[in-house]
Amino acid sequence: MARHIVARTSDIPPGGNKVFGVEGRDIVVFHVNGEFFALLNRCPHEGAPLEKAACVARLTSPEPGVYQRSRVGELLRCPWHGWEFDMRNGQSYFDPKRVKVRSYPVAIENGEALQKGPYVAETFPVLVEDSYVIIET
């Protein structure tokens, strides 16, 4: 599996998302409750962009008239037809065995720990002395 560095964590604000083109696919990364989730940016029903989906909570009812909210912001509601998906794994709630949005593993790593690429530009030390810029070669 290829790794792609797509953004700094600060590029995606809490509660927000951002779409990245990776290997010809649009992948949307969500930042919810301090975690990051990546999904294919396409609803499996008719292709609506999930970046426009509402991030909603799971609502359950242990008995009539009693409602409980959990996992606030971790469920997606498609903007076109309201199909709902679990942001953690792409699973749908209405037909979990057959309908799913492709999800991708997300890792957060310190920039200094990432391996340098094979291409490195040649650099030169720069000194500033008495308002003159000097480049050493």
From TrEMBL:
Residues 4-115 form the Rieske domain. It comes from the Bacteria. Keywords: 2Fe-2S, Iron, Iron-sulfur, Metal-binding. Pfam families: Rieske. This is Nitrite reductase/ring-hydroxylating ferredoxin subunit.
